[in-house]
């Protein structure tokens, strides 16, 4: 408020659409079968941010919280679709490279990750799914 320089950075002028707010998201204008213009959401510009059910998810924050768990060598949080058939079927998945192959130890890692998620992350940013990988691509 009352910061004209910051306000100017947050908006862009368009001859066709007027004054537009920079949301930090990528989108494009497409036309449906009847010729109506629609805005198609493509995702966040930042690679460590995503949208899930209309909420901004900070993937880097999830990774930061879960990477502190002893036994986690590397970790990447990602948004994935559970089903191709349903709109809104995306969920957060934590991909873990662990220092163990033992299923009991891996379950303990997941339990600890869930505990840390509950403690440090809002409910909508807690991964419901964990998968183990030998290495990250």
From TrEMBL:
Cellular component, GO annotation: cytoplasm
Domain of life, per lineage: Eukaryota
GO molecular function, one term: phosphopantetheine binding
Matching SUPFAM superfamilies: Acetyl-CoA synthetase-like
GO BP terms in the entry: amino acid activation for nonribosomal peptide biosynthetic process; secondary metabolite biosynthetic process
Positions of the AMP-binding enzyme C-terminal domain: 61-137
PANTHER family according to UniProt: FATTY ACID SYNTHASE, NONRIBOSOMAL PEPTIDE SYNTHETASE
Protein name stated in the entry: AMP-binding enzyme C-terminal domain-containing protein
Organism: Fusarium oxysporum f. sp. conglutinans race 2 54008
């Amino acid at each position: 408020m009352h910061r004209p320089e910051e306000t100017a950075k947050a908006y862009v002028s368009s001859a066709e659409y007027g004054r537009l707010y920079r949301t930090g998201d990528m989108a494009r204008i497409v036309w449906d079968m009847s010729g109506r213009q629609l805005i198609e959401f493509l995702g966040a510009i930042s690679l460590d941010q995503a949208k899930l059910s209309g909420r901004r998810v900070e993937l880097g924050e999830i990774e930061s919280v879960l990477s502190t768990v002893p036994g986690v060598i590397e970790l990447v949080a990602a948004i994935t679709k559970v089903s191709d058939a349903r709109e809104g079927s995306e969920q957060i998945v934590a991909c873990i490279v662990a220092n163990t192959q033992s299923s009991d130890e891996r379950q303990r890692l997941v339990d600890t990750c869930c505990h840390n998620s509950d403690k440090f992350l809002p409910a909508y940013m807690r991964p419901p799914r964990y998968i183990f990988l030998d290495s990250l691509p």
